[in-house]
Structures are given as C-alpha cells and as structure tokens.
Amino acid sequence: MASRRKLKQTIHFVSSELITDIYFRCLMSKEIDDQKVDKIVIEIMDLNREFVLRVNRPDGKNNPKLVKTYFRKLFSDWQTAIEKVITKIEKI
Fold first, then answer.
1. Residue 3 pLDDT > 90, yes or no?
2. Is it the case that residue 13 has pLDDT exceeding 70?
3. How far from the centroid of its chain's Cα atoms is residue 48's Cα?
4. For residue 34, what are the contacts with CB-CB under 8 A and spacing of at least 6?
5. Is 13 exposed, middle or buried (0-12, 13-18, 19+ CB in 10 A)?
6. What's the CA gap between 66 and 58, in Å, rounded?
7. Domain boundary assignment for the chain
8. Contacts of 82 (CB under 8 A, 6+ apart)
9. Rounded CA gap, 18 and 1, in Å?
10. How far apart are CA 39 and CA 18, in angstroms?
11. Do residues 26 and 37 touch, judged by C-beta distance below 8 A?
12. Residue 2 has what pLDDT?
C-alpha cells in the first residue's frame, strides 16, 4: 500500500461492503437467523478496529525493511481474516 491512510480507507471500505452484503442478504431472505447475522457483523467490526489499530503502530519505525515486512504481514493477515468472514457469510 502506498500510505497508511489509503490502507485504512481500504479496510473501512471492505468492512462496510461486507456489512452491507450481510444486511442485504438478510432483507432478501427471511430464513436467515438474525443472531448469526449480528455475530458476523460484530466480528467484522472487531476486525476493522483491530487492523486499523495495527496500521497505526508499525514495528521498526526507523528501519524501512522492517516496516515493509510488517505491512506485508498485516495485509496478508487482513486478507485471510476477510476470507474467513466471507466463507461465514456464504454459509448463512
């Protein structure tokens, strides 16, 4: 990512899109359990908060190589967490 600001915006955007998708599915199908939906939405919000906080505190502030590896790991962790949430959404 080019900057912390863009990374935070990306995290917020994807989180909001996932929440919108869940509520849209809930509106389209009355068979979906509202408690499951609420749990997934809370999980998405927690992931959003966790990763935005991680963006704010990079390791090795003065060493560019450490910062680069930190953000690569952060981005890959974020992608795996989002994939897990997407699979939960598809199972609803």
1. no
2. yes
3. 5
4. 26
5. exposed
6. 9
7. 4-91
8. 14, 18, 47
9. 21
10. 13
11. yes
12. 61
Per-residue burial over 23-41, b if 16 or more Cβ lie within 10 Å, else e, is eeebeeeeeeeeeebeebb
Q: What pLDDT digit, counting tens, does each position of 55-89 carry?
A: 988 877 788 888 888 989 999 999 999 999 999 99
Residue 12 tokens, joined: 């917020």
List all residues 6 or more positions away from 22 whose beta carbon is below 8 Å from its beta carbon: 37, 40, 41, 44, 89, 92
Stretch 39-61: mean pLDDT: 90
Where would I find the H helices in the chain? 4-28, 34-56, 64-91
DSSP letter at 31 equals T
- Rounded Cα gap, residues 82 and 79, in angstroms: 5
- The DSSP 8-state label assigned to residue 32 in this structure reads S
